[in-house]
Amino acid sequence: MLTGDLRSRIDRVWDAFWSGGISNPLEVIEQITYLMFIRRLDGIQTGKERRANRAGRPIEHPIYTDANQELRWSRFKALGSPEATFELMRDQVFPWLRELGDEGSTYSHHMAGAQFRIPTANLLAKVIDMLDDLPLDERDTKGDLYEYMLGKIATAGHNGQFRTPRHIIELMVEMTAPVPGDTICDPACGTAGFLVASAAYVERTHSDDLLDPATRQHFDQSMFSGFDFDNTMLRIGSMNMLLHEVEQPDIRYRDSLAQS
């Protein structure tokens, strides 16, 4: 449950984009999601480093290497120069983000079209400071924050898109009661709200089963599929799943109502 203070912080981030000249709600959410995702990647890398240090082993599947440490959220937020951060984000972080992911994965396919659209260094600095104060490491809070942002999209958007309210999604997931061996497909996934809720349900109700390596691999790589015909939604949906720790969701372009 979001407190009034957290809602006010998100509203301030939103207002900063509007006053900075980005007024399309979907574009605002896309840009905020990129920044949340970049911050999350830094957090994942930090966790990998801690585990490696405790075990006395090299970092397993590092996100960042010695050659690109300056691209981490914790590094560029401390540069102290809005102009330097803006140039780094535009010229290095986003090109790296577009190439992130396994070759041939749906994530890497969608992110190839990622565009950095924040127009000024001052706006970027303001948004980074605001997002850095948000408790994105708390899973429930992170989901509530993201849902609150998605609520700012009009109920009916472009191309007849409709956003299903979160309480309806959670009711439908509870009624279907997915289990780790299932394969789940949302033929009109949008921001992947159904898939995220399904993943959260399985993790909550079958956490012990997910300790099995084969089951976890199925969960991360083949359990969840989603289709949409809006490329922005595909990028947001892919990042939303990764933000919620599903490593390789199959989110792909398809018009489910078109004749095949």
Could you explain how this protein is built, in words?
It comes from Candidatus Frankia alpina. Belongs to the N(4)/N(6)-methyltransferase family. InterPro entries: D12N6_MeTrfase_N, DNA_Adenine_Mtase, DNA_methylase_A-5, SAM-dependent_MTases_sf, T1MK-like_N_sf. Strands 1-2-3 form a three-stranded parallel sheet. The longest helix has 31 residues, at 25-55. With 260 residues, the protein is mostly helical. The protein has helices at 4-19, 25-55, 73-76, 82-99, 106-111, 121-132, 139-150, 166-176, 193-205, 213-221, 231-243; strands at residues 184-186, 224-228, 250-253. The chain has two domains: 1-136, Ferritin (Up-down Bundle); 154-260, Vaccinia Virus protein VP39 (Rossmann fold). 56% of the residues lie in helices and 5% in strands.
The CATH topology of the largest domain turns out to be: Ferritin
Summarize the amount of helix as a percent range.
55-70%
Percent of residues in beta strands: under 5%
Low-confidence stretches: none
Computed CA radius of gyration, to the nearest angstrom: 18 Å
List SSEs in N-to-C order.
HHHHHHHHEHHEHE
Number of domains: 2
The CATH superfamily label of the largest domain reads N6 adenine-specific DNA methyltransferase, N-terminal domain
EC number: 2.1.1.72
Catalytic activity: a 2'-deoxyadenosine in DNA + S-adenosyl-L-methionine = an N(6)-methyl-2'-deoxyadenosine in DNA + S-adenosyl-L-homocysteine + H(+)
InterPro entries: D12N6_MeTrfase_N, DNA_Adenine_Mtase, DNA_methylase_A-5, SAM-dependent_MTases_sf, T1MK-like_N_sf
Enzyme class: transferase
